[in-house]
């Protein structure tokens, strides 16, 4: 139950990621190089310069991020002048940073010079710190959960579609059809999963959807073997013989009578495949052939910061690592619970 609640929370976060993330720019890609690699809880004064407004509806910005993200400049101090505001940019060593003056005309919603400091200068806190590009790590983690859950759903859907179809055909008809499909299954099974995924990804090209397809095309084998075995047993039952005697066609017999009685182990395998898909996507992103920058991915975040483990800031790699571990563990526990619930002999 705890795993199920955790997954429900994760799905909620994935759907409303941009509404929850402190950085609502697309892909949480607001960079502040002067405050890179800061520890969790870091706070700094931030000057916000409004951007030119482009046409974007509120639904798009709510679910996919704000294309009209304003420019943020970390500052150590500022002074109000007669024509605008003079800022001193933030420096890590505490020395006086570069000076730059911004005029009142650059702040369209400020009616007076005093409005600039009240509306556009604020204290910003980075709860999980910043990454090596100065981006908010919490925002990147919240939006990155979309990649992990999406790869799981799409990859499992593709594997079920292919695996159930081929497994059902092989198990029901047998003979040469079964031998041909089993040959394909055995050949695919003999190739290491990660190697096959890399080969498919390189053939289709690097990208978001290519990873989904590549992972899905490598996870159908186990589903097909299990479905084949289940159908070979179920098709000998008397209700299947009765269905044939009533003149039902093969498609109806397979979909309406056999498959519903053979789906319990497939559901269990799907939970394990979900966890496996998340791990494979993280591995691909770590190798640089998964989700491409600036799109946030937990595996990509680890790739960017694994060297920081020995540079005194291990949390930059440990935080996404713990997130991957928690999500995979939750799916594995749910798979075990489903196995126990559907084990008729055990009950």
Automatic annotation (TrEMBL):
Residues 1-21 form the signal peptide. Gene3D superfamilies: MetI-like. PROSITE patterns: ABC_TM1. GO terms for cellular component: plasma membrane. Coiled coil: none annotated. The keyword Zinc-finger does not apply. The chain crosses the membrane at residues 149-173, 180-202, 208-227, 262-289, 315-338. The keyword Transmembrane applies. Belongs to the binding-protein-dependent transport system permease family. This is ABC transmembrane type-1 domain-containing protein. It comes from Patiriisocius marinistellae.
